[in-house]
């Protein structure tokens, strides 16, 4: 009777096993198919990236050499040496080339060759180091192809040779010296050709770097020339045969015709065939040379994985073998289920022992109590918390093992479980006999066979140490956050210390630059332009760091105002147009018809747009940058797109991180702090908007900003102020009052305004400023906040409290950042030092009205009278110079003739008559109008002589200073009329 039973059990076991085996095999096949597809995709990505990296490296090396050659030809020292060499210039140029070759490391030679092909200077990089070739060892290269090609190039063009073997004296140099040459002609200032610069790149290093890049690919990666000749191939013995006349031909076409057929007609791409998977790219070493540009091809070939090969791999076979044992066990277990009822009681006892072991060896405290609160079961962990052995605690209640307060709390929690028949969880502080503990306790009802409550189960976890650690970590976190805020506040408060010296540096440099242009001193102007550019660049970096610090410290507040979105963005584009032109980019603006008003912080939005458009221009060459405006529901959409270098997905993920750029090469090539996009994102977040970026490598990037339109309902543009006869502006003098305790800063503002014909009076303290305001009545005040005796805010408050001067326009020009008080105190504009000179001039001209361009010269030996009349005229907006005698007056007029001369007659040395006669003798001074201001008696003879030249006579004592000023106004107005009107007026 037992045999049929055993045979049936075996049959069931085998049937179960084969079903499980078939399912496992099917799973492995599916996994192999997915793995093959993944491997193909990964192979595509890896090889494409490897080919791109290798190609970019080769292009970058050639571009670096071209950049060095371009730099050398632009250095005046090089052209001077080639046009008229001297020992001193030769030594300087030799030092320059030696430094370049030593610094680069991958240059074999750097040479200067004259128009006849003779080497003028040659620097060699050998294993012994960088050496200058003696003059008697220099050679004539007139017959070399690179000389002939470079000699025919126009200004600014480059010659790049193919990557070939170096030939010396008609023979290929052994061992092989692989060389790539970059050349460019050198022209003099008169346009004459002086010679050329030739740089030999070390081809061995280029190929070694290519070999390192090739390790990134799966399979093999080779390098061939335009004709498919092997430079780096599968067989080293077949490389460079095309340059060896006695060697048999060896190319991709002869060795791998299917591969060559797939790649020869395309510039780049991927192909798959019987030969495997091919990724290739073509490198134009000199794109400007057109179809004759030397080319290199990178070819990566690898075999594609198959499902059969994947299944037959060691891993899958091992996996299949490993599955056999679990399948056998599972089949046996399923078979045993049918006969397992006989061992059910044994299993129950085993499970009971297991539960007991879990109870006793658990790391959490477990107790079971009856309805009266007495302990029925307890494990070792719970007993250790209480401080007694487990056997002593059986039958004890909570009052006997804890303090009264803790016992009352535990009783209450137990009663809640029994009453509500629910599970509860509490964090409890319990004071047991063994000590004080913080417990995370979960209670649940224990029921009997009938479902009635028989007791309470308690599971507790001791979190005392964790609570303590959390407190420690919380304190550490608060300290770290406090330190970070302190750091941010420190940086945000550093604006004064950082911008104060920069204001002087940039301002004085701009002043020196303007003076150099006036003197036509181009050499000094070029140097000072570099200083100004460097200072502006440093200011940009400092502003970025301070901006992000202010955001982190919470010191940026938004000041919303209503403006036209298209006008705002158009102004930013106009400002960025010179930068776009410098990079040969087109800067376009597209505005949808529904774009209108927006209520936002205009300053911050302009800062965001400057960052995004500036980034797009910086990373685009000879391309297009487009800004598109549109409205979507109640949001303004701003899209900035470019056709630049683009970003990889990895670079795109971290593009908004602080101090991050795409990679180190990007930072070296394009510069920048890496904070612009971070600041833009944080500002957009503050404004309640969103910013996102998309990009494709080599295809450009797109940044999209979405901002709420804000509250623009009911907005009406403010009416322009009426400037009547009794208005504030009409009663003010056309003078600018500059208030700054820094004499250099004050002089910079004065110089910027006076160059545009605006009269300036300065004050070095708050009290002096208030006094001059009351006596001078200026048209506008340019005010610094940091003064010696009081702050600029105090000066503003005093002005606004005075009815006579409450409407005085004030422009803040300070190193501090804008504050909310600027709006409260009626500030027209807040300029941050170093300021924009043209912007300040435009602001001031809004309030001084039409500037009187008259330039006056006052000549009088009476110092008091001369200075007094000059001060009165300056307050009226004229540019006034003074002279104490006639000789000095003639010197001043010969430098620049005035529009009107106020001349005293009686002066020591050279009197007024002599001055008039001297002016009549000089053509440049003969037509200068003269206004005689004198107390002397004029004889009839003198009158005839003087009235031929003088336009007006005013006697001292008969006319006060106000009358003199009025006569100057009247005389200049007459002189500016046509002759017919002058006669009518007279």
UniProtKB/TrEMBL annotation:
It holds the Pfam family HK_sensor_dom_bact. Gene3D superfamilies: 1.10.287.130, 3.40.50.2300, Histidine kinase-like ATPase, C-terminal domain (3.30.565.10), PAS domain (3.30.450.20). Residues 493-711 form the Histidine kinase domain. The keyword Membrane applies. The chain crosses the membrane at residues 12-34, 315-334. Residues 351-421 form the PAS domain. It is a multi-pass membrane protein. It is an enzyme of class 2 (transferase). Its main location: membrane. Residues 735-848, 855-969 form the Response regulatory domain. InterPro entries: CheY-like_superfamily, HATPase_C_sf, HATPase_dom, His_kinase_dom, HisK_dim/P_dom, HisK_dim/P_sf, PAS, PAS-like_dom_sf. Its EC number is 2.7.13.3. The modification 4-aspartylphosphate is found at residues 784, 904. It is found in: Cell membrane. It catalyses: ATP + protein L-histidine = ADP + protein N-phospho-L-histidine. Keywords: ATP-binding, Cell membrane, Kinase, Membrane, Nucleotide-binding, Phosphoprotein, Transferase, Transmembrane, Transmembrane helix, Two-component regulatory system. PANTHER family: OSMOSENSING HISTIDINE PROTEIN KINASE SLN1, TWO-COMPONENT HISTIDINE PROTEIN KINASE. This is histidine kinase. It comes from Dyella flava. The lineage of its organism: Bacteria, Pseudomonadati, Pseudomonadota, Gammaproteobacteria, Lysobacterales.
